[in-house]
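Task: sequence design from structure.
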C-alpha cells in the first residue's frame, strides 16, 4: 500500500464528522418547519383557552422512587449513562507511583445508615497491574516491527476498528437491531464501562507508546496521546467477548458448535487487540494486560448479572513477565513466572435488583424462545 493511499484512508476517518448532520433534524432553518412552528403556536393558543390549573389531588401517579424498573422509562442514552455511573461508583483505584502499579477494588457491601450518615463500604480485590521495565518495552519493539509486515493485509480492519468495533462482535451471531435493541445496548455499555476503567488505569501506569521508543515504527494511524498499557481495545474487546458470550447460555443459541460462539468471540477480541500492534500503536504486553483487565471486568459483570452472591477470580498482571507475544490465552493465569497470575478470589454480593442485572435480563429475553418482559423486574 502506498503512503498516499494510506494517508487518504486515514483522512476518511474525518467523515465521522458527518454525524453532526443529525442536528439537522431540528430543522430550525427549514421553511416547512418554521411554518409548522407558527401553526402550532396559534393552534395551542386556541385549544388551551381558557387555562385551568389541575384540581388539587388530581394528577398522574408518582413514579416509585429508586426502582430498577424505572430504567425502562428512560431514553437509551440516559439509561446507559445511569448504569455505567452506578457500576463505576463501586470501584476504587489505588496507585503506587514508585512501584509503577495500580490495583482496582470493588465495593461488596452496601453502606449502612440513613442518608445523613456517611457510607462505610468494604472493598475486595479485582485486579492488579504492574508496568513492565523499560528493557521489556525495548525488547518488545521487535514484535511491533515484525507485525508491521501485515499492515497492507489488515489496514481496512485497523481503520474500521478505530472506535468501538461492535460490528466485529455482532457479526458472529444473527443479531437484528430491531429485535435485539437491549443486546446492542448491553454491548455498548460493557465497552463504555471498560473504557472508563482502562483510561483511569493507563493514567497511573503512564507507559510510553512504541513510536516514542523508535521513530522507525511509523504507525499506520495517528497515535493516541494517552498511555499505551493496558491496551484499551484489548480491555474493551475481552470484556465484551466475556459478557456477550455468556448471554447465550440456556437460550436457543446454546447448542454444540465447533468452534463455540464463546471461542469465536474471544478470537474476534484477540484479532482486534493484535491489530493495534500491527498498526504500531501497542506492544504485545499492552494487549496481555488489557486481556487480563477486560476478562476480569467481564467476569465481575457476569456475577452482578446473576443477582446472587458468588466468587470472582482476581487477576494480577506482572509487567516484567510479559516478554513474549500475545494470544487470547495470554489472559489465562499461570505460575509466578507467567505475565498473568491469580491475585486471589473475592466474593461479590450481587443484589437481585441491581441496575446491570435489569439490562442483562432484558437482553437475555431477546434470545429466549418466548421472550419475557425483562425478567422479574418488568
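Answer:
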Amino acid at each position: 500500500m502506498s503512503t498516499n493511499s494510506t494517508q487518504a484512508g486515514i483522512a476518511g476517518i474525518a467523515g465521522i464528522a458527518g454525524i453532526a448532520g443529525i442536528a439537522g433534524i431540528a430543522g430550525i432553518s427549514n421553511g416547512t418547519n418554521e411554518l409548522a412552528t407558527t401553526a402550532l403556536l396559534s393552534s395551542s393558543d386556541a385549544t388551551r383557552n381558557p387555562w385551568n390549573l389541575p384540581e388539587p389531588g388530581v394528577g398522574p401517579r408518582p413514579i416509585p422512587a429508586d426502582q430498577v424498573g424505572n430504567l425502562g422509562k428512560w431514553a437509551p442514552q440516559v439509561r446507559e449513562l445511569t448504569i455505567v455511573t452506578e457500576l463505576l461508583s463501586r470501584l476504587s483505584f489505588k496507585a503506587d507511583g514508585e512501584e509503577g502499579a495500580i490495583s482496582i477494588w470493588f465495593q461488596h457491601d452496601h453502606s449502612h445508615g440513613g442518608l445523613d450518615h456517611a457510607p462505610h463500604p468494604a472493598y475486595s480485590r479485582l485486579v492488579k497491574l504492574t508496568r513492565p521495565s523499560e528493557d521489556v518495552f525495548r525488547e518488545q519493539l521487535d514484535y511491533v516491527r515484525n507485525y508491521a509486515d501485515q499492515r497492507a493485509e489488515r489496514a481496512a480492519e485497523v481503520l474500521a476498528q478505530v472506535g468501538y468495533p461492535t460490528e466485529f462482535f455482532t457479526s458472529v451471531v444473527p443479531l437484528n437491531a430491531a429485535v435485539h435493541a437491549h443486546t446492542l445496548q448491553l454491548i455498548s455499555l460493557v465497552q463504555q464501562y471498560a473504557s472508563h476503567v482502562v483510561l483511569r488505569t493507563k493514567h497511573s501506569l503512564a507507559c510510553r507508546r512504541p513510536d516514542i521508543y523508535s521513530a522507525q515504527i511509523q504507525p499506520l494511524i495517528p497515535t493516541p496521546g494517552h498511555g499505551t498499557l493496558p491496551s484499551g481495545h484489548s480491555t474493551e474487546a475481552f470484556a465484551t467477548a466475556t459478557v456477550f458470550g455468556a448471554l447465550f447460555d440456556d437460550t436457543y443459541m446454546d447448542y454444540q458448535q465447533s468452534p463455540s460462539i464463546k471461542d469465536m468471540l474471544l478470537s474476534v477480541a484477540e484479532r482486534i487487540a493484535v491489530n493495534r500492534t500491527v498498526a504500531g500503536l501497542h506492544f504485545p504486553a499492552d494487549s496481555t494486560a488489557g486481556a487480563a483487565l477486560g476478562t476480569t471486568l467481564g467476569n465481575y459483570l457476569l456475577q452482578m448479572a446473576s443477582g446472587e452472591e458468588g466468587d470472582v477470580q482476581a487477576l494480577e498482571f506482572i509487567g516484567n513477565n510479559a516478554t513474549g507475544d500475545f494470544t487470547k490465552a495470554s489472559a489465562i493465569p499461570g505460575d509466578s513466572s507467567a505475565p498473568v497470575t491469580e491475585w486471589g478470589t473475592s466474593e461479590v454480593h450481587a443484589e437481585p435488583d441491581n441496575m446491570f442485572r435489569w439490562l442483562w435480563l432484558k437482553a437475555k429475553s431477546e434470545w429466549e424462545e418466548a421472550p419475557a418482559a425483562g425478567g422479574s423486574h418488568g
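Residues 10 and 159 are 7 Å apart (CA to CA).
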